[in-house]
Amino acid sequence: MDAQLQVADGEGHPDGDATASLFSWLAQDPDVRRSCRPSLAPCRLAPGRMGGAFDAVNVVIGNAIALGNLIVAVAAWRAARAPRSPAQPVRLERSGLSMTIDGASPEAVAEAARLLGLADPPHRAGEPRRG
Fold first, then answer.
1. Which of 2, 91, 112, 122 is the 20 to 30 A CA-CA neighbour of 97?
2. Residue 44 has what pLDDT?
3. pLDDT for 89-128, tens place per residue?
4. If you average pLDDT over every residue of the chain, what do you get?
5. Measured on CA atoms in the order 112, 118, 124, 125, is the torsion positive or negative?
6. Could you give the CA distance from residue 55 to residue 4 in angstroms, rounded to a whole number?
7. pLDDT for residue 15
8. Which whole-number Å values give the CA distances from 128 to 122, 125, 131, in the listed order?
9. Residue 48: count of CB within 10 angstroms of its CB
10. Sequence spans of domains, the chain
């Protein structure tokens, strides 16, 4: 399934330089490159607004493992940039639904899986597991 990662500046506008940096980081991660196929989305700025050439990273997420790899890589990118620049929010969006990735906890992965429809339905005791 297709989703987008967006990096915003301090005013909530797309940050093209940070987006390009995130894309570069993800493209160099072999697990993410193989399982999520990141690509850059061209910028769609409002008239009169200046910005970078790109405003999002497109990703194709096939399963929860690929999603976990992606979230860990985004968290690592944010941590690597922290000493040089303020932590910028990274938003994962699909079909108008979004969440902010600010860590790689199991809870963050579970929230993203629910957002993307990758979470398993609840299992009831006594019923066989599907999948």
1. 122
2. 62
3. 888 888 888 888 877 778 888 888 887 887 654 444 454 5
4. 80
5. negative
6. 10
7. 82
8. 12, 8, 10
9. 5
10. 2-116
Q: At what angle do helices 64-81 and 16-28 cross, to 10 degrees?
A: 120
Q: Is the dihedral of CA 3, 116, 111, 73 positive or negative?
A: negative
Query: What token pair was written down for 37?
Result: 């196929």
Q: Are 90 and 75 within 8 A, CB to CB?
A: no
From the list 95, 85, 87, the residue with the least C-alpha distance to 115 is 95
Structure tokens at 11: 């005013």
Type and span of the H or E element at 17: helix 16-28
Whole-angstrom Cα distance, residue 36 to residue 14?
21
Nearest to 35 by CA among 63, 57, 56, 58: 63
Residue 101 near residue 91 (C-beta atoms within 8 A): yes
Pairing of strands 90-94, 97-101: antiparallel
Please give the structure tokens belonging to residue 102.
């600010």
Contact in structure between 116 and 86 (CB atoms under 8 Å) = no
